[in-house]
Amino acid sequence: MGSTSEIGASIIEAGASGDLNQLRAIRKKVGDDWEFRRICDQYTAFSTGWSVLHHAVEIGHFEMCRFLIKKVHVFVDPLTYKMDAPIAQAAKRGHVEIVKFLIEHGANVGLANIEGFTPLHYALLIGNMELMELLLRNRVFVDAQSVVGTPLQIALSRGNAEAVKSLLSHGANPNYFYSVEETPLGIAVNARSFECLKLLLEAKADPNAYFNGLSPLSAAAREPDTKFLKSLLAAKADPNLLREVTDDDLQDIFLPIEEAATVRNRAAMEILFPVTKRLAHYPNWTIDGIIEYVQTEEFLAKGAERVLRLLTKLDIRGMQYACNEDLYSAIVQYRAATILRPWNTKWLSKLSMWEARLDLKIPSLLGAQKCVRLMPDLPVPVQGEIDAAANVTFKKFLIAGLAFSLDPYNKDTDHSFRVCLFDYFVWLTQMRF
């Protein structure tokens, strides 16, 4: 009935249009069931890498999915160019019965795409509780990281207390964060979900844990509703916590009471004032005196100076760790620095490169995306004595990118492309800064 590519194109077209009768007719014309299955498994849409099964689950065609899996016996977990399996595609569209059917026939519930999204992430992003419970019953990994965080972080950001309760009951870590630097408690405060905050505290979330910037208590100090602040203090959140981030006395920037003062939250300050130790550089240690002082040029200058000192220390220590090949410690320093200076592409590119070398795919990708957004006019190296080394880097990048595009499932080409990509980013930022 034509070449293999023509048959494959017809199969994809039938899947995309939901024409099960056409798909059956193609199978009959091919004649050989093994050959038909092979074409279904190997032929994908050129632009997306979608198989016929991806198309069937996308449109929610249960009978076509049943036909492909039970009659044709296609592979249940083919991956697109973005590494999405059919079960992820079905979850993204909220097709619960298809997800259930795929699980029953061996689909891997924990497969993550290039951005870290698993079916559980998609279930929470669309707010489908039935789908979430189905996945949790099938022992999906509850703390999987994505570019928008863990499933728990997603549920918290949406104030979905029911989902938070279920995730915690299935073992979600109430303190875990990485790609998204905010702790679960901090997200609950910013989402203004008091019910979520209570659930986290009941699950023994640490009220004093945070990466950098605003602690959960500092975030609560800026909120007009003081019940967040009171609950955190009752859970032993420290109002005097200035956590050290280096070996000397350089610490985070402001206390919770100062955060409250900057937004003139007098109600929060009245709660914090009796439990906050006096800061010596304040000329008038009263609520009115603190509010008055945080509006002064002196306060702003001191804050800017502390930020600059902190960034300098983090940069120096990060490079020291990197030179000693302690990339994990270097990453910690630069992640703290990029929170305070999220537009510094030189730091972002270093961070992405080191994360790529350690195979931390999700944060590495996230950093690369930030670089691209911040530098949309990325320069292309040109021939010349100044750019000779850069051209070698650029050529390696193009060759590796071509090899990866021809065989995206090959681990060796994937690794080579990733390394060359971030070497290229490093060169670009050195040229720009």
Helix content bin: 55-70%
- Provide the gyration radius in Å: 26 Å
Low-confidence stretches: 243-251, 380-386
- Count of helices? 24
Integer average pLDDT: 84
Distance between the termini: 60 Å
**Overall spatial form:** elongated
What's the story with the biggest beta sheet?
A: none
Structural class label: mainly alpha
| Percentage of β-strand residues | under 5%
For the secondary structure, the number of strands is: 0
The run of helices and strands is HHHHHHHHHHHHHHHHHHHHHHHH
Q: Describe it for me?
A:
- Helix content is 60%, strand content 0%.
- With 433 residues, it is an all-alpha fold.
- Among the domains are: 1-75; 213-291; 354-432, no CATH class.
- α6 (86-92) packs antiparallel against α7 and α11 (161-169) runs parallel beside α13.
- Mean pLDDT is 84; it is low at 243-251 and 380-386.
How are the SSEs ordered, and which strands pair?
Blueprint: H1 4-17, H2 20-30, H3 33-42, H4 52-58, H5 62-72, H6 86-92, H7 96-104, H8 119-125, H9 129-137, H10 151-157, H11 161-169, H12 184-190, H13 194-202, H14 216-221, H15 227-234, H16 256-262, H17 266-272, H18 287-293, H19 297-323, H20 327-340, H21 345-357, H22 361-374, H23 388-406, H24 411-432
List keywords for this structure.
single chain; ANK repeat; 433 residues; 24 helices; mainly alpha
Briefly summarize what is shown:
The protein is mainly alpha-helical and 433 residues long.
